[in-house]
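re: ur question from earlier - yeah i can do the single chain one, its not a big deal. heres the input i used so u can compare w yours
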Amino acid sequence: MAIGLTHYLVLGAILFSLGLYSVLTRRNAIAILMGVELILNGANINYVAFSHFSTGGLDGQIYAIFVIMLAAAEAAIGLAIVLAIFQIFHTIDVGAVETLKE
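and the output i got, formated as tokens:
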């Protein structure tokens, strides 16, 4: 049995769905950031799969590299914000810091 485009699309959809579920249900800021990373990785799988199966070119891989760079920047900035919130409020619970006032 050969692995086709459908297999990659299902895997990308599963990763995207797990990431979306994590973002919508978690109250922990770190878990929300991990959910965003899963969403971006699901999109990366789709970029590379469509690129491979449609033209065979490198367009999807280039888009995936840009998304990986974006995810690295998002993770760095997101973790810096989480650390700043933890220093002020002594918690990383998103609901506890909804007003960002002491």
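The chain has a mean pLDDT of 89. not sure if urs matches, ping me
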